[in-house]
């Protein structure tokens, strides 16, 4: 049984040919420049991989191609091999496309250096830098303008149309905003809700996340505030919910109940409203009744009518003292009067 060695992913990537990816690969081979090939294939990356992507950044000094992978453990040999393969696969693809095969001026790998790194230097043509914060290939700034040897405009348009048709068959892709909302729900238990943590969870850079949310007409702060406002989010940045702001169904779920019905043993809403009305009516019948109690009684009568129209309260409350009974008899007109 052969043992796995660190150079195995590089040997697999060296055998890569664009024809292996069929329509996706033929589209890249038919473009005019490497920059066009990268942009067109990036639109249809779902045909090639899901959950991870490549990103190209161009500035005055260099062109950087970054591999944004799935989350994983760098200590795992399988995950580390997959990362090595994807970065080497991109370098091999660029080398095959270019009329004058471009080579990277710098290679950055996140994992630690293996015991023997000679295979990496032989493959990339430059000694890679291990322990970097990202997986990156750094090229000269003119990389996007390098011509493709197999350029054919008619085949490019044909394969572009076929890729678009296949993407339509797959269905609409989930928007980045929807993925951010799901990620925020996942940290309801008090996890890290910062944009850096969410971007890492989505396997995308922070800058790309901000840009793609802006393309969809929103922002990370807007999504975060909406989640906190609807009280579906309880991360460290949100305010603790208050009883006046949280709906009854939400408080019921927080307390461990599946519905918003009252607890067992508590009076129904109509009975509670009638009880309040009786108490305020007794207070209004008192000789020291303040005007405030009388207005409260009126409010309770209207509340009782709304809450318990089928079961109205008694016509009059029974007096509880002789003084109240005498006062009631003195107000009752007699036949002689």
Distance between the termini: 119 Å
> What is the number of E strands?
4
Mean pLDDT: 76
**Shape verdict:** elongated
Unreliable stretches = 231-260
How much of the residues is beta strand, in percent? 5-15%
Number of H- or I-type helical stretches: 14
Helix content: 40-55%
Radius of gyration: 36 Å
Number of domains: 2
* Largest sheet data: 4 strands, antiparallel
Structural class: alpha+beta
Arrangement of strands in the largest sheet: 1-2-4-3
Give the topology string: H per helix, E per strand.
HHHEEHEHEHHHHHHHHH
Task: Write the SSE topology.
Blueprint: H1 8-14, H2 23-29, H3 34-43, E1 53-58, E2 62-68, H4 77-97, E3 106-108, H5 118-124, E4 135-140, H6 153-170, H7 176-185, H8 195-201, H9 206-215, H10 220-229, H11 248-254, H12 269-285, H13 291-307, H14 322-331
Antiparallel strand pairs: 1-2, 2-4, 3-4
Helix pairs in contact: 1-4, 2-3, 2-6, 7-10, 12-13
Description:
The chain is of the alpha+beta class and 337 residues long. The protein has two domains: 8-169, no CATH class; 176-249, no CATH class. Helices cover 47% and strands 7% of the residues. It has 14 helices and four strands. The chain has helices at residues 8-14, 23-29, 34-43, 77-97, 118-124, 153-170, 176-185, 195-201, 206-215, 220-229, 248-254, 269-285, 291-307, 322-331; strands at residues 53-58, 62-68, 106-108, 135-140. It has a four-stranded antiparallel beta sheet, with helices on one face. Helix 7 packs across helix 10. The chain is elongated, with a radius of gyration of 36 Å. The chain starts with 7 loop residues before the first helix and ends in a 6-residue tail after the last helix.
